[in-house]
Design goal:
The chain contains five helices and four strands; from the N terminus they run αααβαββαβ. It is an alpha+beta fold and 153 residues long. α2 crosses α3.
């Protein structure tokens, strides 16, 4: 974090990671701040780009999204144009919830969340239809032990 972030800001961020639905008054009370001070700090964190919107955590299984797949991709292409096309293509696939360029044996890692194996196969077919890839390896999660954990502050 930036050196402009002090312990109070860290506490605000930590509280929001735990429960983003807290009102400004609840946050202020929790941290023994005035509402005005809390508001100013939240606004500053937003302006600095530390806070990037607010989302709800969703129980994916309650929505029938039971399959999590980690997809490891390798490519022979590393041109600027290919990379731009590849990134645009992957970002059109809503089942891809995380997308990383990585070091090591593979070039990219995707986290795909979907209903079942036939729906994953449709994602796979869409993925390979959009760009040329050297290899695609899929790892299927058997159990989710922890997911969407807060950042360590």
């Amino acid at each position: 974090m930036s050196s402009k972030i002090d312990q109070i800001d860290r506490a605000l961020v930590k509280a929001l990671q735990s429960d983003a639905s807290l009102s400004q008054r609840e946050l202020a009370d929790r941290l023994n701040l005035s509402q005005n001070t809390c508001w100013r700090r939240l606004r500053a964190l937003d302006e600095q780009g530390v806070l990037q919107g607010s989302t709800a955590r969703i129980d994916r299984k309650a929505l029938g999204l039971d399959l999590v797949v980690f997809v490891m991709l390798r490519t022979r292409h590393h041109s600027v144009d290919w990379l731009a096309q590849f990134r645009r293509h992957v970002l059109t696939i809503p089942e891809v919830v995380d997308f990383h360029r990585i070091g090591g044996d593979y070039d990219y890692q995707l986290k795909v969340v979907t209903e079942d194996m036939p729906s994953y196969d449709r994602v796979y077919q869409r993925l390979i239809a959009g760009v040329e890839l050297d290899s695609v390896t899929s790892y299927f999660a058997m159990e989710t032990i922890a997911e969407g954990r807060p950042l360590p502050l």
